[in-house]
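Researcher: I'm preparing a figure for a lab meeting and need a structural model of a single chain. I don't have an experimental structure, so a prediction will have to do for now. The sequence is pasted below. Please return the structure as tokens so I can convert it later.
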Amino acid sequence: MDTPTGTLDKFHLGVSADGRSCMMIFVDEDQRTIKCVADVSEFHAFIASLNRVAAEMARRRSDEGDEESSVCSTMNVASAEFQVSPTDAYIEGALVGDSGQVVGIRMCPEVACQLTKAMLMTAPAASRC
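Model: Understood. Here is the structure written out token by token.
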């Protein structure tokens, strides 16, 4: 895999008049450009990926001086994102802690159903009918 050598110098974002698509233009230090047209869901996925990368970078920076990490430690989950794997029926995603740590998750659909049921049974009702 080739490692990109350019540094991102500029980023431009344009949104269509109907708000359904956008164009992103990335310009490196040598003024080379990459243009992408994306619909809203692709743009949201792009932003989510940037957030995951930023959180992972923050986690790695905080772990540099702390080589001791507990395997059974817990974290407060600030956000989560999951999707069906493009290669099989597994559910893949990540949990992001409120201090930036990221935990990758991959589970079969049966476990995802069990987990969802367990969380729903544990959570208090949001309102009464």
